[in-house]
Design brief:
heterodimer; A: mainly alpha; MetI-like fold; 13 helices; globular; B: D-Maltodextrin-Binding Protein, domain 2; 12 strands; transport (chain B); Bact_solute-bd_prot1 (chain B); ABC transporter substrate-binding protein (chain B)
Chain lengths: 285, 443
């Protein structure tokens, strides 16, 4: 018993120092009028929560973030799965393809934003110049095309992440299941549907969950490319919190918005855990 | 045995972490102390120029003062956020902070007023902008303002070519609703600006040498509000009326909004302008895709540089911002003395040196735009834009009201107004939202 506690101490220390303490401090800050330049932080009760919940910009940012998250997850999980299946075929050059596919997730998102700001610029960008040679004129930063652009850029950067998880998951599908399906004369599509998909279900759910959580916190690329505009049309929840904290200097309200966001996201966890781990009583295979 | 060792290591690690945490909490940082003055600035032309001044001081006057200056350049986008965390912690790790007229009200509680400096050596508008509640909190360093930068070759042809003049009349009738005659850019009002933008846009004039007439900076960015303010002030508008009440939702505000939304919705600027700021505007001019633009003074030299802008070098003219009254926003970048510094005497020696014409001459020669008119006059050979800056700031310069939360006000106005600039939101609603923000912040 004592050994168990001793062995678990580092994890416990990690949880206390890096998870529980910051969250507690964040919650406490959300109950105060702490500002960046203020020297004291008087207790504010739930006033900051009232300010956040009554701010239409906050709700708009949540709505935009939810829609953005849904769009990118719906695209990235099937695309990542498709790529994983492709690379899993062990085609010639699959190792090179594997390495190349992982490159985008190694680039810092803010750097990616700067790169695309240059690459897609209508006056000096390589892509518009290339398209112009074929008589195609594009304005990718036009307000009507900027949201699809942000989705595409996220898909380009993060599909490799879902690919990586799903490819690793595919390695866990027992070979004898494929063999049994082949003996039964199942087609490739039927094998995917009846053999691979059920086994991969928890992995697909994990990939979707991880991407959803990450996409909900999207900041860098959007901030670099649009600053949350025009107006507040592309303001994500993270941009809202960042601006509230560091432009408005209001840490109390920014912390309250963070706590609200945390509470909204934490509601997803039991659903996903049930999907990944299985219902109580189902046992682990 | 292994478990014991592991436990010991874990305890040591936790203890170290705790100690580090305590050190940080006790913090505030002790600063460099002694003869070393720590200063923060942001990177870019100002940081580069200031490095030359720092080097000159450390090699010369600094030795006599017994002071060495160490400058840290933070990220350009997050300098003020990082400084704010230092200020909130009452840290003494930085002796001299970077500040600006649009944020000095927020910084003032953490700064000591600057005393013993001859403020008459600086542009009055720069000193006013850095004065909060009657006290000067920043030593002016650099000034920024706006000009109309235009292609001289194109405007010269417009002024002399009969066929172009005739076409200009037709295009202006179509876009502005009246047939106009071309004028020199220094005499433009906003109708002339819009008409010329349409004339140099292929959509309205297939013979135009440029794709778009102008390049609007309409991204949701606080610095873009400063440019739009030129249009507002030129219409007789302001943020606040004489009684201190927000007054953006006014005839002047609507007229200023109409200038922007007309330019954008009629396609006189690239649709990408919705996400454009300084670099995109430079790119539009450098590529030859735009004929003129409202731009920061810092853009002029690069557009006329054969090395950086081969297509436009030698072809860029400069004129005041258009309008019945020419107006240009002016802000001063500055340095301020940390109230919690433990090294104030040495920091003041450095600031006293920075206030000399000699230091500002070094700054100007290294690419900065000092806030001292006498230095700008004397250094006209260094940068041809200096003479225009002296004239323009002196004659047309204005500073927005210095609020405690000016920085937040600019940001909130960008949130409120940028959608309407590009015709995505109704102007009235945007201006009302902007007034609400100002009301909240100025109250």
């Amino acid at each position: 018993m004592r050994t168990r506690w001793i062995l678990g101490a580092p994890l416990l220390a990690f949880l206390v120092l890096l998870v529980a303490a910051p969250i507690t401090y964040g919650v406490w800050t959300s109950l105060t009028r702490r500002t960046l330049s203020g020297t004291d932080a008087p207790f504010a009760g739930l006033a900051n929560y009232g300010a956040v919940l009554g701010d239409s910009t906050f709700w708009h940012s949540l709505g935009f973030t939810a829609a953005f998250t849904a769009a990118v997850v719906v695209l990235e999980v099937p695309l990542g799965f498709g790529l994983a299946l492709l690379v899993n075929q062990r085609l010639p050059g699959h190792r090179v393809l594997f390495t190349a596919l992982l490159l985008p997730i190694m680039v810092a998102p803010s750097l990616l934003g700067v790169m695309f700001r240059l690459l897609l610029n209508g006056d000096i960008g390589a892509l518009p110049a290339l398209l112009a040679k074929f008589g195609v004129s594009v304005s990718l930063f036009d307000p009507s095309s900027v949201v699809p652009l942000l989705v595409v850029l996220d898909v380009l950067q993060w599909t490799p992440f879902t690919f990586l998880i799903l490819y690793a998951g595919l390695q866990g599908v027992p070979a004898d299941l494929y063999e049994a399906a082949a003996v039964d004369g199942a087609s490739y599509v039927r094998t995917l549907r009846s053999v691979v998909a059920p086994v991969m279900g928890p992995v697909l759910a994990s990939a979707a969950f991880l991407r959803a959580i990450d996409a909900f916190r999207t900041f860098d690329v959007v901030y670099v490319l649009t600053g949350g505009g025009p107006g507040t049309s592309t303001t994500t929840a993270s941009i809202y919190i960042y601006k509230t904290a560091f432009t408005d200097g209001d840490f109390g309200i920014a912390s309250a918005a963070s706590v609200v966001l945390l509470l909204l996201l934490i509601g997803l966890v039991p659903v996903v855990v049930r999907r990944i781990v299985g219902k109580p009583g189902e046992g682990r295979r | 045995m292994r478990v014991r060792r592991f436990t010991a290591a874990a305890i040591a690690l936790v203890a170290m972490g705790g100690a580090a945490g305590c050190a940080g909490a006790a913090g505030g940082g002790s600063g460099a102390g002694g003869g070393t003055v720590q200063m923060v600035l942001w990177p870019g032309p100002e940081g580069d120029a200031m490095q030359k001044v720092v080097d000159a001081y450390n090699a010369g006057q600094g030795k006599k003062d017994g002071v060495t200056v160490k400058m840290t350049l933070l990220s350009r986008t997050d300098t003020f956020a990082k400084e704010a965390t230092e200020m909130a912690a009452k840290s003494s790790s930085v002796d001299v902070y970077f500040t600006a007229s649009y944020i000095v009200g927020q910084h003032a509680p953490s700064l000591d007023p600057i005393a013993g400096v001859d403020s008459s050596a600086y542009f009055p508008v720069a000193v006013d902008g850095l004065t909060y509640e009657g006290k000067l909190y920043g030593l002016p360093l650099d000034v920024s303002n706006h000009f109309l930068l235009y292609r001289k070759d194109l405007i010269d042809q417009l002024m002399s070519d009969a066929a172009w003049k005739a076409e200009y009349g037709k295009v202006s009738q179509e876009v502005v609703g009246k047939s106009l005659t071309p004028k020199p850019p220094a005499d433009w009002n906003w109708d002339d600006f819009v008409a010329a933008a349409a004339f140099f846009t292929k959509k309205y004039n297939s013979g135009s040498p440029t794709t778009y007439g102008t390049a609007l900076q309409a991204k949701n960015l606080l610095y873009n509000v400063m440019i739009w303010d030129d249009v507002l002030w030129s219409q007789g508008g302001s943020w606040l009326d004489s009684s201190g009440k927000p007054t953006l939702n006014s005839a002047a505000g609507k007229a200023a909004m109409s200038v922007y939304s007309t330019i954008y919705t009629k396609g006189l600027t690239s649709p990408d302008s919705a996400q454009a700021e300084f670099p995109e505007t430079q790119a539009a001019m450098q590529s030859g895709n735009a004929a003129f633009a409202l731009q920061w003074s810092a853009g002029y030299a690069d557009l006329n540089s054969a090395e950086k802008s081969p297509k436009t070098a030698g072809k860029i003219g400069i004129a005041p911002v258009p309008g019945e009254q020419h107006k240009t926003h002016v802000h001063a970048l500055a340095v301020g003395l940390n109230k919690y510094s433990k090294n104030k005497a040495n920091a003041m020696k450095w600031l006293t040196y920075l206030a000399t014409p000699a230091a500002m001459t070094t700054y100007a020669q290294a690419g900065g735009i000092p806030a001292m008119p006498s230095v700008l006059q004397a250094q006209q050979g260094t940068n041809p834009v200096f003479s225009s800056i002296t004239d323009s700031i002196g004659t047309y310069g204005f500073a927005e009201p210095t609020l405690k939360n000016s920085f937040q006000a600019y940001s909130d106005l960008a949130d409120a107004l940028s959608g309407a600039w590009v015709g995505r939101e109704p102007a009235d609603a945007a201006l009302a939202k902007a007034d609400d923000a100002l009301n909240r912040l100025s109250g």
